[in-house]
Design brief:
The structure is a homododecamer of 77-residue chains.
Chain A lengths: L3 H4 L5 E11 L3 H12 L6 E14 L2 E15 L2
C-alpha cells in the first residue's frame, strides 16, 4: 500500500484524502491532473485508489473525464 | 458535479471532505448546519453527496438528525 | 412493491426507470418534481426507491437538492 | 452511537431492530411514525440509521413515504 | 412492500426480521420452510427479501440449500 | 455477455433495462414472465442479471415471487 | 453456518439478530460481551458475523471498542 | 451532474439509462462508441458514470473491452 | 460454514474458489453442474455461496442460466 | 457517534478523516498507532469506524497489520 | 460471459481467478500484463472483470498502475 | 500492496486467493493459521485483505473465530 521505503518499517501512519481530477483526454490523465495539483501542498503521496469514473458529455461526445481517487500519503514525524 | 462556473473548464481539481451535521428539525437542516460551519474555512464548495442518515432518540422521539455528507470544493490555483 | 390494485394479481410485469429530480426546497420536493415530469409520458407509476441524494452549493448554502430515484410502473397488456 | 447516559459506560449491550414506517408527509415523519409505534413495547431506544427510502405513488404523486430504519436500544441488566 | 390490505392505509408500521431456512430440494423450498416455522409465532407476514443463498455440500453434491431472508410483517395496534 | 452472434463482433452497443416479473411458482418462472412481456416490444434481448429476489406472503406462505432483473439487448444500426 | 449438531439435519430454521457489544480491551472482548448478555434470554446461539467495528475515543486513545454482530440461533420446535 | 447550461436552473429533470459499449482499443473508446450509438436517438446527454469494466479475451489477449455506463440526459419540456 | 465433521475441530483451513455453472433448467441445476465438474479435481468441498445469477436469452426466453458460486473446501494436512 | 459531552447538544459539526495505521502486534494496536500520530495535530477526536483490515506478509507470517479507519472529530466554534 | 464458441453450448463450467497486473503506461496495459503472465499456465481464458484500479506514486506522479481483475476460463472435460 | 522487493519493479503479476482460517483465540490467530497452512504450497505471499469475520458459538461463548482473507502472492517468471 505504499512505496518501498515505507515498507521496511511498520510504524508509518498514512492519511487518505479524496480528490477529483479532470481531463479531456483519458482516465489516466484525469488522475495525473489531480496529482499534479495535490503535489503543490502534499509531500509523500504513495498510492491511490480509483473510486469513481465519470464523464461530462457535450454534443454526444465526452468533453472531459472526471475521476475520483483516494490518495494515501505518509504523515511524517 | 460542480457549479456552472467550473463546468466550462475541464482543468479543475476538487477535493472531497466528509462532514457530519446535526439538527433537531430535519435532514435538510442537518446538512445546512454542516455547510454553515464548513463555510468559515472552506471557499468554493460546489456539491455534496449524502452518505449516511442517522437520528438520536430521546423518549421515543428523534432528538436530532445526524447526516454525513461528502462535500466537494474547488482547489484553487 | 406496488399499489393495491396490482397486489391481488401475481401476473404483472413492472419496468423500473431511473430519474433525477431537483428542488431548492427539500429532498421530498426534488422527488415530486421528477414524478411531475415523468407523469407526462408514463402511466401507472407505482413506487420509487431513492438511490442517491446530492446537493448543489452556492455561497456555502444548498442551492438545490438533486435526488436520484428508481421508479417502478406497470407494463400494461 | 447512543445517548450520553450510555456513553460514560463501556459495558452496555445494544440490540438493533429493523422497522419500516410510513407517512404521507415527509421522510422524517415516516421515521417518527415507526418510533411512535415501537415505543409501545421498546424502552431505551437510542439511535437509528436510515437504510432505505421509498415512496408509493398514486396518480403520479407520492401517496406516502416508506422509510426503513435500524433502531438501536439498550439491553438492560 | 406489503399485501393489498395494508396498501390503502399509509399508517402501518412493519418490522423486518432475518431468518435462515433450509431444504434439500430447492431455494424456494428453503424459503418456504423458514416461513412455515415463523408462522407459528408471527402473524401478518407480508413480504420477504432474499439476502443470501448458500448450499451445504456432501460428496460433491448439494446436500441442502440455506437461504437467508428478511421478512416484513405488520406491527398491529 | 451476449449471444454468440454478437460475440464475433466488437462493435455492438447494448442497452440494459430493469424489469420486475412475478410468478406464484418459482424464481425462474418470475423471470420468464418478465421476458415474455418484454418480448412484445424489445427484439434482440441477449442476457439478464438478477438484481433482487422478493416474495409476497399470504397466510404464512409465498403467494408469488417477485424478481428484478437487468436485461441487456442489442441496439441495432 | 452452525454447530455440528445442526449440520446433520437440513430442516433447521435459524433467526439472526443484530447486537452491539462494547469493551475497553479488544474487538474480540466486545463481541464476547454482547454474547454474554444475549445468552440470558437466547438459547442455541450458533454463529455470528461481524458487520461493523467502531471505537470511541477519549484523549486521543480508544476508550472502548464497539462491535456490531449478527448472531444466528436455532428456532426450536 | 450536468453541463453548465443546466446548472443555473434548478428545475431540470434527468433520466439515466444504462448502456454497454465495446472497443478493441481502450476503455475510453468503448464508452465513446456507446455514446455515438445513443446520440442517434437521444438529445441532451449530459454526463455518465462507469459502472462496470470488462474485457473479452481471445488467445490470452484482450479482444475487446466492454464498458457499462449510466448516461444522464435532460428530459425536455 | 462447513460440514459437521469439520465443526468439532477449530484448526481447519479452507480455500474458496469461484466457479460459474450453466443449465437450461434452473438456477439449482446450474450450481449442481458446476459442482459436478469441480468434483473431478477437488475433494472435500463443504459449502457454497451464490454470488451472481444470470441468464442467456434466445428468442425472448432463457436459453440457459449461469450462476457464479464461491465454493469452500478443506485444505488437508 | 461521539463522546457524551457532545451528545447533550445537537449543534455540533464533525469532520471525518481517513487514516491508515500499522502494527506488528494486532489490529487494535494498528488503530492506536494511527490515533497516536493524529493526536499531535487534531483535538477532539470522538469515534472511529474501521473500513479495511490488511496485513503485510514476510516469510509466510504477518509482518505487520495495516488498518484503515475513519476518525470523527468535533469542529470547534 | 465467454467467447462465441462457448455460447452455443450451455454445459460449460468456468473458473474465475483474481489477478493483479502492473504497468507504468495505462490501466489497459496493466490488465494485458496480467493476462500475458497468466497465459503461460491457463488455457481458454474467456473474459475478465476489473475489480480494483490503483496507482503507485513517486514524486507526485503515477509510477505504475495496478489493476485487479477476475479472469474467467473454461474448465475442460 | 506488496513487500518492498516488489515495489521497485512495476512488472510483477500477483494472484489473489481466498482462504478461511480458524482459531479459538483471536481474529489475528485465525489469520495466521490460514497463512501457516498456505505457506506449505505457496511461496511469495505478500499481503492480505480481511473480507469476513465470523465466530462459532458454543454455550453462549465464541468457540472459535473464522476469518476469510484474500492473500496476494507474486507469480514468478
Amino acid at each position: 500500500m505504499s512505496s518501498w521505503k515505507d515498507f521496511s518499517m511498520s510504524d508509518h501512519v498514512y492519511k487518505k484524502i479524496e480528490l477529483v481530477g479532470s481531463s479531456p483526454e483519458s482516465i489516466e490523465a484525469a488522475v495525473e491532473n489531480a496529482l499534479a495539483r495535490a503535489k503543490k501542498t502534499i509531500r509523500n503521496m504513495r498510492w491511490l485508489e480509483v473510486t469513481e469514473t465519470r464523464g461530462h458529455i457535450e454534443n454526444g461526445k465526452i468533453d472531459h473525464w472526471q475521476v475520483a481517487v483516494k490518495v494515501g500519503f505518509t504523515l511524517e514525524g
